[in-house]
TrEMBL record:
Assigned protein family: Belongs to the Omp25/RopB family.
Presence of the UniProt keyword Membrane in the record: yes
Gene Ontology CC entries for this record: membrane
Domain Outer membrane protein beta-barrel: 13-200
Localization (cell): Membrane
Keyword terms: Membrane, Signal
InterPro entries hit by this protein: Beta-barrel_OMP, OMP-like, OMP/PagP_B-barrel
Protein name, entry field: Opacity protein
SUPFAM superfamilies in the record: OMPA-like
Protein biosynthesis among keywords: no
Organism: Sphingomonas lenta
Signal peptide stretch: 1-24
């Protein structure tokens, strides 16, 4: 009689544990999904007539979803750059012109391939809008201006899970800018970025 009572109880407990186990397994098998936020820093190089380099830094937010064995994501990013250049004696003796890169806005998507439960290899593409600040000084006169450059960004990287919700990443991206405020240009930008993030 005791066996007859214990058997249904044990069976009920086992059935109750199945959904929880399945949920834990699903979460473990798709760790590269969900809402995320990250901090970024890295090497920044701009080529447009002459080469300039510096440091890029900022942050990004994104959302990833597991679809048929791959990871599809969307992301937005805000960064700043330390790149600047200055020349003198351009129009008159003693004058100077300074150009600095300002904020950079990026929106795009990415496709990732989980090569292990903790490692994601991905490619990305999207739109970038970079701010260019200029300052021209001649004697006591200083003129400041700013313009926006529209471009396309392509990139690839590796994301590595380091905790239940945290991760680190390394990424290379290439941006090309063809236009500044309706003026045609051809500027290339290469960046090597490192990031640390958290998933919610």
């Amino acid at each position: 009689m005791r066996k007859l009572l214990l058997t249904p109880m044990a069976l009920g407990a086992a059935l109750a544990a199945v959904p929880a186990a399945a949920q834990a397994q699903t979460a473990e098998s798709v760790p590269h999904s969900g809402l995320r936020a990250e901090a970024l820093v890295g090497y920044d190089a701009l080529t447009s007539g002459e080469d300039s380099d510096g440091v890029a830094y900022g942050g990004a937010v994104g959302y990833d979803a597991a679809v048929g064995g791959i990871t599809l994501g969307a992301e937005g990013e805000y960064t700043q750059s330390s790149i600047k250049g200055e020349e003198g004696n351009l129009l008159v003796s003693g004058d100077s012109a300074r150009v600095t890169l300002g904020r950079d806005l990026y929106v795009g998507g990415r496709v990732g391939l989980p090569v292990s439960p903790a490692t994601l290899v991905y490619g990305k593409a999207g739109y970038t809008n970079a701010r260019i600040n200029t300052r021209y000084t001649a004697g006591a006169t200083t003129v400041r201006d700013k313009a926006n450059a529209d471009g396309l960004r392509l990139g690839a990287g590796v994301e590595q899970k380091i905790g239940s919700q945290s991760y680190v990443k390394a990424e290379y991206r290439y941006s090309n800018y063809k236009e500044i405020e309706d003026f045609d240009i051809d500027a290339d930008r290469h960046q090597l970025m490192a990031g640390v993030g958290i998933r919610f």
